[in-house]
Amino acid sequence: MTIQDVAKKTNYSVATISRVINGDPRVAQKTREKVNAAIEDLGYVPNLLGRNLRQVKSNVIYVLLPSIDNSFYSKIVQSIEKESIKTKISIMICETYNDFNRYKTFMDAIRKRLADGIILISPGKSELLPNFDDIPAVVCCETDSFNCSQVDIDNESAAYDAVNHLIQTGKKKIMFIGGDFTSSHLRKKGYLRALKEVGLETNQDLIIDKDCYGYEDGLKAAKKILESQTKPDAVFAVADQIAFGVIKVFNKAGLKIPQDVAVCGFDNLTYAKMHNPSLTTIMQPRMELGAEAFKLIYSKLKNPQSKIKKVILEHKLIKRYSTTGIENEEI
User: Fold this and answer.
1) 203-223: string of b/e by CB count within 10 Å (b at 16+)?
2) Per-residue pLDDT for 173 more than 90?
3) CATH number for region 3-46
4) Distance separating alpha carbons of residues 326 and 331, to the nearest angstrom
5) Who contacts 20 (Cβ-Cβ below 8 Å, separation ≥6)?
6) pTM for this model (two decimals)
7) Average pLDDT, the chain
8) Which CATH number, 3.40.50.2300, 1.10.10.60, 3.90.550.10, 3.40.640.10, labels domain 57-153+286-315?
C-alpha cells in the first residue's frame, strides 16, 4: 500500500496526504479526518523516517521462518549469515509461526525503514500472507505465486523419485502423509504421478494431507494407521520430522522396518542418518538454498528494478535402512 493509493481513495493530492501525515496545522480538520480514515481503512503505513531520509538504509534484512524449533532451517540460516558477512548487511531472525499478524508486523517494520528487505523461509501458501509486493523480498523453500524471486527445489520431482524408489523395492500400498501448504501439495502430485505411472490404484484411505507438519503429527498419523483397516506397506512423509514420529509408533507396535512397512522422509535432517533405523529421505541442499536466497535479496537491494527470478536447485534421494534394510553411511 502506497501514499498514492491514499490519494486516489480520497481524491486529494499526494502533497495533501503528506501534509496530513506530517501534522501540518494548515490542513483543514475535515480534510485531515478524511485522510486519516482512508489511511486506517487501507492499512497504509507511513514512512516515519520522513521524506528526506528515504534513501537511508538500515543494512538489516529480516529472515522470517516459522519456528527455530525446526532443525531444517538451521543450515539455511547459517548459510544466509555466512553470505551476509561478506557484505555490510546484518540479518535478524524472526519467528512467524505462520501467523498472519506476525508477518504483518515484520513487513510494516520494513515499510518504516527498520529493515531493508526480507527473506521468507517456508512461508506456506501465498494467499495466507499479507501483501508484500512493495517490499524487497525473496522466498526460500516454497514455490507459489509470490511477486518476488524464489529459490527452491522441484518438490514434485523429488517426491516422485522417493515414491518410485518405494515402488522399486516392491511396495504397492504406499501411504502419503503431508500438510496443507504449497510444497506439500507439490509433493503429493509427485506421489500420485509415481503411482499412476505403474498402474497402482490411488486409495484415499492411504492419504493424510491435512494438518501434518512435525513429529507430534507423525505420532498421531501412525496411530491412525494402526487403527485403520487399510494397512500400508510403505509410508512417504513430506518431512523427516513426520517420518520420525511414524517410526516411533511403528517400532513400539512391533512392526519391522522396512520388512513390514518402509518409511521415507523428506529434508535429510542431521538426525536422519543417526536415527534407528536410519531414514531414507530426500536431501534438500540447505546451504545452497540459503546462499542463493541471500544473493537474490542482495541483488534486489542493489538494483530494485532487477527482474524476478525463480531458481530451482538439485535434490538427491538418500537411500538408507528404513526402505532398503541395508545400512548406508551416505550423507
Assistant:
1) eeebbbbeebbbbebbbbbbe
2) yes
3) 1.10.260.40
4) 15
5) 27, 31, 32, 35, 36
6) 0.81
7) 91
8) 3.40.50.2300
